[in-house]
Amino acid sequence: MGKVHERIDDRLRRFIEAQHVFFVATAPSGPDGHVNVSPKGVGGTFAVLDDHTVAYVDVTASGSETIAHIRENGRVTIMFCAFEGPPNIVRLHGRGRFVTLYDEGFDELLARFDGGVDESLGARAVVVVDVERVSDSCGYGVPFMSYEGERDLLPAYMARKGVDGRAEYRRLKNRTSIDGLPAFDMDAPAGG
Predict the structure, then answer these.
(1) Which CATH class is domain 3-140+149-174?
(2) Long-range contacts formed by 156-162: CB under 8 A, 24+ apart
(3) What are phi and psi of 94, to 5 degrees?
(4) C-alpha torsion angle, residues 5, 11, 13, 16 (rounded to 10)
(5) What's the alpha-carbon Rg for the chain, to the nearest Å?
(6) What letter would DSSP give residue 175?
(7) Contact, 99 vs 126, CB < 8 A?
(8) Any residues with CB less than 8 A from the CB of 133 and at least 6 apart, and which?
């Protein structure tokens, strides 16, 4: 049976920080468009900022659905599952905003993370979620899986591209969502 919590307490924080992967879910407004669920897991790119605020480094990738949906309506859910140890699922529901590498304040936010991921390794934004609902549930249906290590492919790929190559990649692949919504704007501060 699930339980709703008033905040991200120390027990939930320890659970969240121990997970190697999390999932980000967003959707456009209205009855049309695609719901998006993105797995994330580059080490050191998630942080609990306080009892009601979390953030993660959004690394340049082939899509930009999360940014497009946050830009449109702000709704976001982040989910963590225990694949090792006692079963548990934690969901953080809230309103997201983002600061891109072209915005003021990006470097200060990026400094809050332990992962050492910066623009040279593909960091394109920091997504901040003001958490409105915290819940956990049993997780009995989640299988055991063992963590074997990080895949360093994406950061290494972005590092090889160089500054101009990363900017061109974002220009080609991240400007709109798969539904045609505006996503990663390289010309103006985002705010989200």
Answers:
(1) mainly beta
(2) 156/121, 157/122, 158/59, 158/60, 158/120, 158/121, 158/122, 159/120, 159/121, 159/122
(3) -175, -160
(4) -90
(5) 16
(6) S
(7) yes
(8) 4, 91, 92, 93, 94
Residue 128 one-letter amino acid: V
Render pLDDT for 88-135 as a digit per residue (tens, 0 to 9).
999 999 999 999 999 999 999 999 998 788 888 889 999 999 999 999
pTM > 0.85 = yes
Amino acid at 172: L
Would you state the structure tokens that stand for residue 95, as one six-digit string? 């309103």
Residue 26 Rama label (left phi>0; alpha psi -120 to 50; beta): beta
- Answer yes or no: are the C-beta atoms of 167 and 185 closer than 8 Å: no
Find out whether 91 and 139 touch, Cβ atoms under 8 Å. Answer: no
Q: For the segment 136-152, what is each residue's pLDDT rounded down to a tens digit?
A: 999 999 999 999 998 88
CA distances from 190 to 84, 162, 174, 182 (A): 38, 23, 14, 11
User: Which DSSP letter does residue 24 get?
Assistant: E
User: Residue 169 and residue 27: Cα distance in Å, rounded?
Assistant: 24
Domain borders along the chain are: 3-140+149-174
Answer yes or no: are the C-beta atoms of 128 and 55 closer than 8 Å.
Answer: yes
Rounded CA separation 130/50 (Å):
10
Least confident of 43-47, 85-89, 154-158: 154-158
Give the number of other Cβ atoms within 10 Å of residue 60's Cβ: 24
